[in-house]
Amino acid sequence: MTNPSLSQPLLQLEGINKSFGGVHALKNVSLSVQQGTIHGLIGPNGAGKTTLFNVMTGMYQADSGCFNFDGESLSLKTSPQVLAVKGLARTFQNIRLFSEMTALENIMVGQHSQTKTGIFGAVLRTPAARREERLIRQEGYRLLEYVGLSKDVADRVARTLSYGDQRRLEIARALALKPRLLALDEPAAGMNPTETAQLQDLIRRLHADGMTIVLIEHDVGLMMRLCQRISVLDFGEKIADGTPEEIRRDERVIKAYLGGDDMPNSGKGAMPIAGTAQGSLQDDHAGTTP
Length: 290
What we know:
Strand content: 15-25%
Structural class: alpha/beta
Number of domains: 2
Largest sheet: 6 strands, mixed
CATH superfamily of the largest domain: P-loop containing nucleotide triphosphate hydrolases
Number of helices: 10
Helix content: 25-40%
Radius of gyration: 20 Å
Protein name: ABC transporter ATP-binding protein
Number of strands: 10
GO molecular function: ATP binding; ATP hydrolysis activity; L-isoleucine transmembrane transporter activity; L-phenylalanine transmembrane transporter activity; L-valine transmembrane transporter activity
GO cellular component, one term: plasma membrane
Pfam family, one: BCA_ABC_TP_C
CATH class of the largest domain: Alpha Beta
CATH architecture of the largest domain: 3-Layer(aba) Sandwich
Order of helices and strands: EEEHEEHEHHHHEHEHEEHH
Keywords: ATP-binding, Nucleotide-binding, Transport
């Protein structure tokens, strides 16, 4: 795989501002995501992470700033649907599956946006449409297997799946769009330790296969293990950007998370080891990459 440090940014946001009434949610925020990396967004509650994520994926329209994807300058009004066609797909903090559809049907919905035969071919059941439908179904089974779901899950209604399996299914549906950048919004939220470990393995596999990933997650230890680069927001501003090791030792980040200058430390100017995601930026595997 290409050395991420030598590649061009796949996604660039510059000078992004976003307000809701009198609340300035984002203040002149810039973000550069290198192709082939896992890039994390962290920060205390209310820091602006989700707002930036929603601007990046077309869910919110920024008030001002510049948006560039894969070398193309895009309007701040670019819709999620257009971004998906260009190669940017996302999942949501609150799972948004079609709950009454089967697992396979959920994936096929994503794939149908990529079909070439069109609505008339589908209605008339032309040979080309039937052939494409077979290929879509085969790809759906492949994606289920890729994210760690067995073929037995394919015909189960989505709402009957376990929470962890629904999370994996949502990732599979996003992958059906054949994205170049996959944006994951708190994918480990609500997962038990076993499910989180399985998710970590899946994200590493995606990265090894060349996927560029932007990740929001409250589990800071997970972020430290997975990400090559991390951007930190606080009160709508980007206060730090660097490798996990750099972020772990950044005094501005420590202050943002622990809320003061008088704080315990590990003796090396780093965040203390702690059991809560929001209270620690140090981890046994801090700074490692997949």
